[in-house]
Amino acid sequence: MLRGFSALFPAELTRELIVGLDAPDDAAVYRLDEHRALIFTADYFPPVVDDPRAYGGIAAANALNDVFAMGGKPALALNLACFPDDMPFEVAREILWGGAEKAREAGAVVAGGHTTRGEEPTYGLAVIGFVDPAKLTRKGGAMPGDRLLLSKPIGSGVVTTAGKGGAASPAVIRAAVASMSQLNAAAADAAAVTAAHTGTDVTGFGLVGHALEMAAPAGVAFRIFPARVPLLPGAADCGRAEWFPGGTARNEAHFGGRVRAATDLDPLLRRLMFSPETAGGLLVAVPAERVPDFVAAARAGGQSVWEIGEVVEGTGVELASV
Questions:
Q1: Which of 154, 163, 182, 202 has its CA 20 to 30 Å from the CA of residue 247?
Q2: What fold characterizes domain 5-134?
Q3: What confidence tens digit (pLDDT) does each residue in 180-218 have?
């Protein structure tokens, strides 16, 4: 969206801007000195679950995870909120409390924010973090032979959409909430210690969309095996019942031309690859010889991880049969 905007700013203003105006990535990055760079991001969205505190925590995790995706550590956050006039004070307080708890878990402090009025609640965070520029994780950088690892199951989009329609059980909703609420800190730490070549968090563009954002700047193709991609409990059933969020069709229309799917691939699995996620896991490309180290480091931090594919010569994304 911001491509070409760099022409508006003189070189003296953009000299230290490492990421932000042209190549798409998870956050803006501004160099402070040789060993420190500032990461800045913002994200917010309407409720995805009914529990206000859970919603606040999920929205905060979604924003904070952008900093982890860049290889950094969150430090400071501001609330971004829009609340209806008739929303009970207690509900607004629970949303903000959930966000503050998640920021504290990430090692950041919420130092204020801005609230507006609107018909529908919206909440999220603007987050500042820090990273050593030499350890910055960009979306480009994947190399043929790398293995693709994912740190969370997918399916939050279909589950929460079904939940809004009263078609998902409490147990299925709880599992989705637990996954969306989890920070990607442990996966980011594992990426750092194993010299992962690239990474991003899986959110609104779905697994395939974010995979394409990683593959394109590196000039490679990603081969994903959908049967190896973990699904949240109940996600397949919600998908079969056609509880896909509207963003699924938009993702298919936008990214589908660069995706090659095996003829025998289950259509349900294919569609789940395009379904939007909320606060999804970290997708990383790791040198093949470092995969065991990545898995061990992630698990030591309490984070599960799945090997779902590989980086190959070519372009686009291939959805392959096992």
A1: 182
A2: 60s Ribosomal Protein L30; Chain: A; (3.30.1330)
A3: 999 999 999 999 999 898 999 999 999 999 999 999 999
